[in-house]
Amino acid sequence: MANRTGSMIVIVILSAVVGAGIAIAFTRSTAAQTTRPSRTPDGKPNFSGVWQANNEAYWDLQAHEARAGAVTQPGVYPGYEFARAPAAPVLALGAAAGVPGSMGVVEDGGEIPYKPEAAAMKKENGANWIDRDPELKCYLPGIPRAMYMPYPFQIVQSTSKIQMAFTFANAARTIHLDKVEPPPDDTYMGHSVGHWEGDTLVVDVTGFNGKNWFDRAGNFHSASLHVVERFTPITADAIRYEATIEDPEVFTRPWKIAMPLYRRLEPNVQLIEYPCIEFAEEFLYGHVRKNQLVKRWEGETMIIDITRKVPPGDKFFEWYRK
Amino acid sequence: MRHRLLGVIAIAAVVIVTAGLLRTARMPATDRGPASKTPWGEPDLQGIWTDPYQTPLERPAQFAGKEVFTDDERAALDKQRAAIPRRDQRVERGSERDVAGAYNAVFQSVKPTGKRTSLVVDPPDGRVPALTQEAAARGKTENEYRLALLQATETCKKKEAACNGGTYLPPSPKRAEMPPFYNTGRINRNDNPEDRSLTERCMGAVLPDFGGYRRIVQSPGSVSIFYDTGQGQGWQRVIPVTSSPHLPTSIRERFGDSRGHWEGNTLVVDVTNFSPKFSYRGSREKLHLVERWTRIDATTIEYSVIIDDPATWTRPWTVKQELTRQDEQANRIYYEPRCHEGNFGLPTMLRGARAEERAFARGEGPDPAAKDTATDFGNEGGTDALTGNGGGIF
Fold first, then answer.
1. Which of A220, A228, A222 lies closest to A258, judged by CA?
2. CB contact under 8 A, A289 and B329
3. Which A-chain residues 275-294 have CB contacts (< 8 A) with chain B?
4. Chain B partners of A184 at a C-beta cutoff of 8 Å?
5. Based on the structure, what is the number of domains in chain A?
6. Percent of chain B at pLDDT above 70?
């Protein structure tokens, strides 16, 4: 991850932190999720409802150990990669600012088969995460990334169309189960055409504009991306989600990710908007304000003094005695 | 001097050309029939829908007392409206105002004249009811601020319509103040992203919406609507069909919180919990909508909405429009709402403003306070009797 030295700092929208706040607990109940027949009237598995991945793939599709911060710096043992410390963009957030470890979701050995030049680009992407990841700018997340971001999404399953509504950026996709003409232009979210193979919904996704990433680790693809997704019911409340990823410009062969998607079982669950266009404005445009909110900008680089004032009564020793 | 909105560029969404709008007319007669049901027995609202006709929200004064046009009147209006040059009108070559015309009439949709003279059906005069005293006072405060920002510009010097109520004066100290209410529209200030209109920030869409296309997909208990509207500013809502109460009042959403139920063949949707950061004709967090979606035949949905806000209007009012089913196969809808992803205009406008301030400080340019960046974005040739202008795209 990026090594930010001195006070040259770029700040970040801590999606993970905010994402956790999205799961707002209500005490009232609704009927929305309480009736969930395992099949639709036409006999297909019933995927309608609110779903969410529950893993760490949004940080990194590949297996990884936990990190001290979303952005880290060398710490006091400069040569020891395992001894890095959180860097300034997240330093004030303590233990909430780290990255959880993961077994990874990449099948067949866990490695993403990058071509050599693409592997170098991936590494560079990771080192420049804050400046390059489209998620931080609130750009439409693309497929498959939208499926495992740390926000709920809703499936509205009909017979000839399946609509998916995503919390993040109010993104949406339509899966066409019927005949449809190809899209007029490449898109962030792709063009999805689906069909049923027994109880498995198979979705062929093409028409990408190549501007998306797969995760916050810099894993990326080009406009030649072709995704084949498979949604297979495990139970009425869990789906096995698989995505085969093919992109001859970036990878040496097709590869696959797989994970469960879980139904959100809160009886009152509904998507609560995450209007991140507005949230990202300071990040994107703060440097062209007349009176800047941060200490100062050098070009598009934020210069921030992180001052964490401890209010009276909340000093560590005072807290310890409480 | 005026500068032009370069950004907010997802042009595709606005190129809603009339060709294809009347596709339904070519649908085979067998498609017309009684309203259908979904396989699970609910009224079927699914498909791609739009209002293919131009109907003004409020009845223009010249049509007072007239509820519907005759076919001859519609034909005459179509002919008259088609002849308007709109943004193809050129002015002095090389001027900023002429360059602004690069967003020419190609980007404007000119729909055929509709049957009714107003979308507003209640009150019966087809006009939005009077504002409450509170709302009028709010509007006055907003307008005073807007005019203060404008008072040192050519617009006021030349006494143009945008400066009505204002006077040509030296720059106002109000230029250093934030607007009296969270800004949603276009004001003559470029200090912050928040000074630009919500449209320029790619957050222009609001509910209710009477333009663009809707794709409706249903499942038992949910009705999803994707709105392809504005310039790539489309958005998605999922209406739960439920008797459960609205969200807690502490949760405010840009498009409100929807709760639907079926009354016979009609989906009735109650919408509350709107955000104070968005405005529909001056109504913000107290906006309350009751929408009614009724499939009246194979190719038509009747949509009506009661619009209420006791803090803004002296009485509730109702808009009605008929939405026509569009060809599913052509998949014209879903021009991806990627205004934000291509919004180079917003930072460029702000950067330009900073450059002008620096130049002025060096004594090398005009006073930025004398420049109007708010009231004009091109030329409109002729007046459309239905839209009241040349059909500006913002």
1. A228
2. no
3. 275, 277-278, 281, 284-285, 288-291
4. 12, 332, 335
5. 1
6. 87
Lowest-confidence pick of B8-22, B148-162, B249-263: B8-22
Domain annotation covers residue A84: no
Inform me whether the C-beta atom of residue B46 falls under 8 Å from chain A C-beta atoms.
yes
Rg over CA atoms, chain A: 21
Distance CA A12, CA A306 (A): 13
Are B216 and B47 contacting, i.e. CB atoms less than 8 angstroms apart? yes
Here the ipTM equals 0.88
Chain A touched by B344 (CB under 8 Å): no
Contact B354 A288 (CB under 8 A): yes
Q: Establish if A317 belongs to a structural domain.
A: no
Q: How sure is the predictor about B110, in pLDDT bands with cuts at 50, 70 and 90?
A: confident
CA distance B230 to chain A (A): 15
- Name the token pair of B392: 């500006």
CB contact under 8 A, A165 and B236: yes
Judged against a pLDDT cut of 50, whether residue A202 lies above it is answered with yes
Taking one residue from A and the other from B, the number of pairs with CB-CB distance under 8 angstroms is 154
Partner A contacted by B192 (CB < 8 A): yes
Over the stretch B42-67, which tens digit does the pLDDT of each residue have?
Answer: 999 999 999 999 999 999 999 999 99
> Considering the domain boundaries, does residue A274 fall inside one?
yes
Lowest mean pLDDT among A86-90, A210-214, A262-266: A86-90
Percent of chain A with pLDDT over 70: 89
Residue A54 within any structural domain of the chain:
yes
The answer to whether residue B361 scores a pLDDT higher than 70 is: yes
Question: In terms of residue numbers, what domain contains A58?
Answer: 30-65+102-278
Average pLDDT over residues B142-162: 94
Does the pLDDT at position B26 exceed 60? no
What integer is the mean pLDDT of B311-330? 94
Q: Which domains does chain B have, with CATH numbers?
A: 133-202+361-370 (no CATH), 213-326 (2.40.128.20)
Residues of A in contact with B235 (CB under 8 A): 170
Q: Measured between CB atoms, which of B40, B194, B334 is closest to A174?
A: B334
Say if residue B389's pLDDT is above 70.
no
CATH number at A236 reads 2.40.128.20
